[in-house]
């Protein structure tokens, strides 16, 4: 056995090297002046509602208001970020881009068809259906959107992984562009598309094509299969919707022929965004459109499918269910198949469903597949679904967009919540998204922060779909606010004018980091800030980010400016039964998520100081939780990797996606077992 002294010496040398590297990079002070939490147990307060647009204002008036708002302070309320490299010279371009901003997506609700919450035991999600006759949720979505990227759905993944994408399948050609600017020189009125489509694009203020649109649309209009990769927020939704809708118009495809265009997306939110864009494009065309995803009335979906939905957006699980069980769902005449965020679809365990869908669809069709990374599974799916594809890639010199200012802060475990609380108080007037690793952690922090009169909202995989839909629309339309979320909100969501992305819990890998920070600084001239919380033992994660071309600066904080509310929080958690129970669940889920982390050389659950971790959840001593922290993978991670091998998973703690609260005896009358 290795000498403990030698082991400690090696660890110290490793930390000293990391600190030396950080000192070479330089650091910036984090000013945390702000109001303090008064002594004593705070009283519960009613949650304030975010501002919503006037019901009589059109979506474009709302969009214009949001896009013409004053630019944010460069110092961003205390974080001394370096000045943007573009300087003042970029301002005229930003104003020009804002003037042609489009009605932005914005989304629904439940998270991924299957949300793999890192160790949180998230359940699979799917969603609801809408078509041209459904105006209730569609109108709400329209009033909540405003986008400057030229599309309402986010790009199918991208960032650092995009440059590493390799061609797969039988390729007939490759087009690669090194992106020097967001827009190309091509205009939408130059495309060989019908006047109705041009009018719809003009109504939505679309003028110039982005790089990915300029490369993909001509090939798709010619009927080629396309395998595409580009940075997040690059405009891929219009890149595949314009040519596929144009094809249906040219061949006079009618609803009685069934579904002509099928778009498959991994999450409910992204699916709704794509649907909203498709609805706008089909405004002047004799085409019907619909949305199929888990969480809605399946019977209503089936009735609409039987009537004929020419442009259908769907998540994999619910789509396969309808293909196998819904009489009258006609898809044998399918013209175009689009698979968006293919890597994410496969990551969350839908490989078998996708293979079954591909086998059921007609062989003679056009297919477009967009993926951020070219994993082995994505390559297999490409070979199965594509025929002699054109490979299109828009490379970026850095993994994240130029308008994004990124930093990290090193914070001991016991100080994490205190720093977050102080930071959020300081930025009450900003629009902030905070990412956590587990649903229960989101729920607890939302309850705690609102209890102490720091108003927040939350989105996670366990929240009811109607509530998630309301929360999402409210946050989209709000000018300020705090949204706590899991990675359910990390992909595809295009929320207007997010000022801050805070990663309270580090992501599973650099790719997820890029998708999280991609919720801000979106589109041409977009600006935003990102802050990553790291504990001292997690500094090795910076090495992975550097390898992924993610530039970060270190930010330090004066300890005396952090609100020292630890004792008040501990008393509150001890005295309030509901908060105590919620905190206990969050603590357990956090450990479970940490144990499921893929980078175990950096995020080692056995190396955690549980005493310090417990303090960040309001406990003076670590609570006893029934959890196997030696678990190497979460249930959904094992499902995605085929780890069960057809066998039913077993676990001593009895946690599962459908029963996240563990084992309960038959005589136990409580709702949840501890």
TrEMBL record:
Entry keywords, A to Z? ATP-binding, Helicase, Hydrolase, Nucleotide-binding, RNA-binding
**Top-level taxon:** Eukaryota
Q: What class of enzyme is it?
A: hydrolase
Q: Where is this region: Disordered?
A: 23-178, 630-674
Under InterPro entries, the record lists: DDX18/Has1_DEADc (IPR044773), DEAD/DEAH_box_helicase_dom (IPR011545), Helicase_ATP-bd (IPR014001), Helicase_C-like (IPR001650), P-loop_NTPase (IPR027417), RNA-helicase_DEAD-box_CS (IPR000629), RNA_helicase_DEAD_Q_motif (IPR014014), SPB4-like_CTE (IPR025313)
Output compositional bias ranges, type Basic and acidic residues. 662-674
Q: Which reaction does it catalyse?
A: ATP + H2O = ADP + phosphate + H(+)
- Report biased composition (Acidic residues) as residue ranges: 120-137
Give the Enzyme Commission number.
Answer: 3.6.4.13
Domain Helicase C-terminal intervals: 403-573
- Which ranges carry the DEAD-box RNA helicase Q domain? 186-214
Where does the Helicase ATP-binding domain lie? 217-392
Extent of Basic residues compositional bias = 93-105
According to its UniProt entry, the function of this protein is described as: RNA helicase.
Q: What is known of its domains?
A: The Q motif is unique to and characteristic of the DEAD box family of RNA helicases and controls ATP binding and hydrolysis.
Listed name of the protein: ATP-dependent RNA helicase
Its source organism is: Vitrella brassicaformis (strain CCMP3155)
């Amino acid at each position: 056995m290795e000498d403990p002294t030698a082991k400690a010496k090696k660890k110290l040398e490793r930390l000293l090297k990391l600190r030396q590297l950080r000192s070479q990079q330089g650091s910036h002070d984090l000013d945390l002046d702000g109001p303090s939490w008064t002594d004593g147990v705070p009283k519960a307060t009613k949650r304030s509602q975010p501002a919503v647009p006037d019901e009589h204002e059109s979506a474009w008036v709302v969009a214009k208001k949001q896009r013409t708002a004053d630019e944010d302070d460069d110092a961003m309320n205390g974080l001394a970020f370096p000045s943007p490299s573009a300087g003042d010279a970029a301002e005229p371009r930003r104003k020009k881009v804002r003037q042609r901003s489009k009605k932005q997506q914005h989304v629904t609700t439940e998270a991924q068809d299957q949300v793999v919450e890192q160790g949180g035991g998230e359940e699979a999600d799917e969603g609801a259906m809408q078509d041209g006759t459904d105006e209730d949720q569609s109108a709400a979505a329209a009033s909540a959107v405003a986008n400057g990227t030229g599309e309402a759905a986010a790009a199918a993944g991208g960032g650092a992984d995009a440059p590493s994408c390799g061609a797969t399948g039988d390729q007939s050609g490759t087009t690669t562009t090194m992106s020097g600017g967001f827009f190309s020189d091509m205009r939408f009125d130059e495309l060989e598309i019908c006047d109705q489509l041009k009018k719809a694009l003009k109504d939505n203020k679309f003028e110039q094509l982005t790089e990915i649109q300029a490369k993909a649309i001509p090939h798709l209009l010619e009927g080629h299969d396309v395998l595409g990769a580009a940075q997040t927020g690059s405009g891929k939704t219009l890149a595949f919707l314009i040519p596929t809708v144009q094809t249906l118009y040219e061949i006079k495809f009618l609803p009685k022929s069934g579904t002509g265009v099928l778009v498959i997306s991994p999450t409910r939110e992204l699916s709704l965004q794509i649907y909203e864009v498709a609805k706008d494009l089909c405004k002047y065309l004799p085409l019907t459109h619909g949305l199929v995803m888990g969480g809605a009335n399946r019977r209503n979906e089936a009735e609409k499918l039987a009537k004929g939905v020419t442009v259908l957006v769907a998540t994999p699980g619910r789509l396969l269910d309808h293909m196998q069980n819904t009489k009258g769902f006609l898809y044998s005449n399918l013209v175009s198949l689009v698979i968006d965020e293919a890597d994410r679809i496969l990551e969350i365990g839908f490989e078998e469903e996708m293979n079954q869908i591909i086998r059921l669809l007609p062989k003679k069709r056009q297919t477009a597949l967009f993926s951020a990374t070219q994993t082995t599974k994505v390559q297999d799916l490409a070979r199965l679904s594509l025929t002699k594809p054109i490979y299109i890639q828009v490379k970026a010199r850095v993994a994240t967009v130029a308008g994004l200012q990124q930093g990290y802060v090193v914070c001991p475990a016991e100080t994490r919540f205190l720093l977050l609380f102080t930071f959020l108080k300081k930025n009450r007037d900003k629009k902030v998204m905070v990412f956590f690793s587990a649903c229960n952690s989101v729920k607890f922090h939302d309850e705690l922060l609102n209890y102490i009169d720091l108003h927040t909202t939350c989105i996670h995989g366990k929240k009811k779909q109607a509530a998630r839909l309301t929360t999402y629309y409210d946050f989209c339309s709000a000018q300020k606010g705090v949204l706590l979320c899991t990675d359910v909100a990390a992909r595809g969501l295009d929320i207007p004018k997010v000022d801050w992305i805070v990663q309270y819990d580090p992501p599973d890998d650099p790719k997820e980091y890029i998708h999280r920070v991609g919720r801000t600084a979106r589109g041409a001239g977009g600006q935003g800030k990102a802050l990553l919380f790291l504990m001292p033992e997690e500094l090795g994660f910076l090495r992975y980010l550097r390898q992924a071309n993610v530039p970060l600066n270190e930010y330090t904080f004066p300890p005396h400016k952090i609100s020292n509310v630890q004792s008040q929080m501990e008393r509150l958690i001890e005295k309030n039964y509901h908060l105590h129970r919620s905190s206990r669940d969050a603590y357990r889920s956090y450990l479970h998520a940490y144990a499921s982390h893929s980078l175990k050389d950096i995020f080692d659950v056995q190396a955690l100081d549980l005493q310090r971790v417990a303090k960040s959840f309001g406990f003076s001593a670590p609570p006893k939780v029934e959890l196997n922290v030696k678990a190497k993978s979460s249930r959904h991670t094992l499902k995605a990797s085929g780890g069960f091998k057809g066998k039913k998973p077993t676990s001593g703690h009895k946690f599962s996606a459908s029963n996240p609260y563990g084992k309960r005896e038959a005589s136990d009358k409580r709702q949840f077992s501890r």
